[in-house]
Amino acid sequence: MTETQNLTLVQAVRDGLHTELREDDDVVVMGQDVGKNGGVFRATEGLFDEFGGDRVIDTPLAESGIVGTAVGMAAMGMRPVPEIQFSGFMYPGFDQIVSHMARFRTRSRGRFTLPMTLRAPYGGGIRAPEHHSESKEAFYAHEAGLKVVTPSTPREAKGLLAASIRDPDPVIFLEPKLIYRAFREEVPEEPYTVPIGEAATRREGDDVAVFTYGAMTRPTLEAAETLGEEGIECEVVDLRTVSPLDREAIVAAFEKTGRAVVVHEAPKTGGLAGEITAILQEEALLYQEAPIGRVTGFDVPYPLYALEDYYLPSAARIEEGILEAVEF
Amino acid sequence: MLAKILPNSSEFVQKCPILSQSDGRSLIAKPLFLSIINYLRKRYYPGGGRIGHAKVGSTVTVFDRAYDDTVRVLDEDGEVVGDLPDLDEGSLVEMYRHMRLARHFDGRAVSLQRQGRMGTYPPLSGQEGAQIGSAYALDADDWMVPSYREHGAALVHGLPLKQTLLYWMGHEDGNNAPPDVNVFPVAVPIASQVPHATGAAWASKLRGEDDAFICYFGDGATSEGDFHEGVNFAGVFDTPTVFFCNNNQWAISVPRERQTRSATLAQKAEAYGIDGVQVDGMDPLAVYSVTEAALEKARDPEADRPRPTLIEAVQYRFGAHTTADDPTVYREDDEVERWKDKDPIDRLEAYLRDEGILDDERVAEIESSIEAQVADAIDAAESMARPEPRELFEHAYAELPPELERQYEAFAALRDERGDAAFLEE
């Protein structure tokens, strides 16, 4: 019988870091306020006391320095887990991410690999100041050489984080901070992994496939339940990894239903919904019975919080998008 | 006020009879006196750094001198003007040989580019003193984190010339060095390798190893944020990193003076709490001495000394930034000629001839051996077949994701059908 703890998503992230620090001496956690302070979201709480300042490292306030020194560590075979405090502050480190994290293996024909995991809380809905709410996963999904993971439940957050840290390739691990403390789940105490690159079906249904990930999984399921009461059965697929996408799962759900909606809080243009739509028309055009819907953030800069509830896809907008696909 | 009295520390030391004897050696009382002067100088003239002398290994070290007090061992004519490093004749000849080899390689590489046999290439001529002098100070276990112009330094540290040629001929394999060669891949974005060197050295320190790391970059790189962040981290975490700035006076067309108002680049170390020293980068023996002292300090730190060091090696790029650049547009021939009078190869050769270590016969032997070595490397690189398209995909991830497998298979099928000629531009 596996022992479990009842944890929130952020506690599960912390538990995952704790487990991997314990399992592998080459794992180090580094970033701003991750040490003594335990992280601004408490994602590293207690780790400094248990593992010391050489394993859980408070760094200077410098995103490029954090990513760039982690690249150097990883090139030497360590498994650094740098944290950027909010994904909206990753851009000073963007050059290091795209020019080096993503390219080191290719550049050296495999001589150097970067087993590093860059963690950052992402997404909106927490009434945060400017630059604290963006969803820029498409930037990183566009960059070959990176993997991009977006968990949506506590149990999977721990397992996906462990898989990311153990992965031989660099991973951008985007944590949906809106649901950091939204609910609890039984999380095994023992080490385990959830595979990168595999989607999960959250709800079975024959009428329409709805693809989503991260914090949007909850309002999408809420909309699906509401519509279920009206006799419209949604198949809800949580992508969990946005790069590489689980094309098989995406195509299978579409072939089952012939209709699809993609939900994400990132802006519409250039977002993952466009990519998923393209996959479906490439692979399953003849199954298609309706235009593929996109329920996304608007193509505007992320607003301050007085307007963010209008910006974010709500259950109402998601329901409407699904109805359009179903009623076409 | 004191700044007016002490505008230039080396001049002051030379002119002050208490500090300097006629043969240039310091008196015993100098360290104490200097500490007082340094205190006063820092108090009243904080930008000017410290005064010291270059006696490596004494309590007052090469790192205690003023930032503008350039370390020199050989003057432009190869005359000894400083403390000679502890190098035997064989090492000195090898150093000379490597400098000649780097110069000859450089000429051949530019020529290959002109003939369409190689892509854009960044020449290093003029910078052999800094590259070979510094790389000679590395232990085999030490690591080199280069930018894109350090072919000479990488060669000394074991990277075969063929690798460098392959990289500039468009093969990533050029960066796939033999496993025992501790050289990082080429880093093209300016200064972006500086944090890597800090992080790699930090990993070594965290693992309790005692390797040192040298990171190369240019004068332009010191204006970049990554220079600041990388060196700052090194200071904070006291990593075993030597930051070696090849100040070759020009960042493509922008002169050194446009990069910073700082009088020296070495003094930037002050802001990070690490040691900074300026060395004559056209003087391979001075470069060797300074780098050796910095690496030793990185490996085996002294109690009250920071492990990292910023070395500014003052030098000149004789040629273009790359083969795509025309330096006559932005700099005068007179300036180039003035710097060519300081040629690091001529300087070392003059010294070695004066010492009776080199003669015409030996130089001729070296010339023919390096010509053969470079020719062999070019033959080897040019005989490398174009990689198969599979190579495009193979190294993006440890394991090929299914979608990449599909993209490859679709392309491979089309290639089978249409033949290579449909894709390749000749």
TrEMBL record, chain A:
Keywords (A to Z) from UniProt: Oxidoreductase, Pyruvate, Thiamine pyrophosphate
Naturally occurring in which organism (per UniProt): Halorubrum xinjiangense
Cleavable signal peptide: none
A molecular function GO annotation: oxidoreductase activity
UniProt superkingdom: Archaea
GO BP term, pick one: organic acid metabolic process
Name of the protein in question: Pyruvate dehydrogenase E1 component beta subunit
InterPro entries: THDP-binding (IPR029061), Transketo_C/PFOR_II (IPR009014), Transketolase-like_Pyr-bd (IPR005475), Transketolase_C (IPR033248)
Pfam family, one: Transketolase_C
Gene3D superfamilies: 3.40.50.920, 3.40.50.970
Source lineage: Archaea, Methanobacteriati, Methanobacteriota, Stenosarchaea group, Halobacteria
Automatic annotation (TrEMBL), chain B:
Residue ranges annotated for the Dehydrogenase E1 component domain, each copy included: 96-389
Gene Ontology process terms (BP): branched-chain amino acid catabolic process; sulfur compound biosynthetic process
NCBIfam families, per database record: PDH_E1_alph_x
One matching Pfam family: E1_dh
Alphabetic keyword roster: Oxidoreductase, Pyruvate
PANTHER family: 2-OXOISOVALERATE DEHYDROGENASE SUBUNIT ALPHA, MITOCHONDRIAL
CDD domains: TPP_E1_PDC_ADC_BCADC
Example of a GO MF term: oxidoreductase activity, acting on the aldehyde or oxo group of donors, disulfide as acceptor
Keyword RNA-binding assigned: no
Organism expressing this protein natively: Halorubrum xinjiangense
Full protein name: Pyruvate dehydrogenase E1 component alpha subunit
